[in-house]
Design goal:
Helix content: under 10%
Radius of gyration: 20 Å
Number of helices: 1
CATH topology: Porin
Number of strands: 8
Length: 190
């Protein structure tokens, strides 16, 4: 489980180190869209997700990033004996972190490791209609997540490419996840 104050202090220290180290902004801003799957521990199954984000390069190897993800976890709709039921469940995530690349920027293929932290918002709603009456309800919860992983940044053109990635992530509500994705990125200023 992640301690929120320790996690926040870690982000502040990372940002401070990047800004006060005198690092030259070598690689400009980058935007990315991605999609993939998340496998949840404890029988939670595998669910698809998609998202987007942006990052900024500090020096030749460090990128600080932000991301937003959406995962539709479940959807149910049915009718039996005059009773109609519909229900949905999904997770919206907002987070950030850092990537560290191993090879010089002139390389077409650049492996990297990353660390991320953020917030997940899990929500569910249901509606039941039958016998001339309708009932509905909803529930939601927020949780903190943190994760580590790695991937490869593969430049197809001078300013864009693909980015396969895998990471282990732990959320205070959802538990352990293995997340795998493929993204398309575009770097400005190249």
């Amino acid at each position: 489980m992640f301690n929120r104050s320790v996690t926040l202090r870690g982000l502040v220290l990372l940002a401070g180190a990047c800004l006060t180290s005198g690092a030259v902004l070598a690689a400009g801003p980058e935007v990315e869209g991605f999609g993939g799957g998340a496998t949840f521990s404890g029988g939670g199954g595998t669910h698809g997700f998609f998202g987007g984000g942006g990052s900024w390069g500090f020096g030749d190897s460090l990128r600080v990033l932000g991301e937003v993800t959406y995962s539709p976890l479940a959807s149910l709709s049915g009718s039996q004996s005059g009773v109609n039921v519909s229900a949905t469940e999904h997770v919206l995530g907002v987070g950030g972190g850092a990537e560290f690349s191993f090879l010089e920027p002139s390389r077409r293929v650049r492996p990297y490791v990353l660390g991320v932290i953020g917030l997940d918002h899990l929500s569910a709603s249901a509606t039941v209609t039958g016998g001339g009456a309708t009932g509905s309800g909803s529930a939601s919860s927020n949780s903190v997540y943190g994760g580590v992983g790695g991937g490869v940044r593969y430049f197809i053109g001078k300013s864009w490419g693909i980015k396969p990635q895998i990471r282990y992530q732990h959320s205070t509500d959802v538990g352990n996840e293995i997340i795998y994705s493929v993204g398309v990125f575009f770097r400005f200023g190249n």
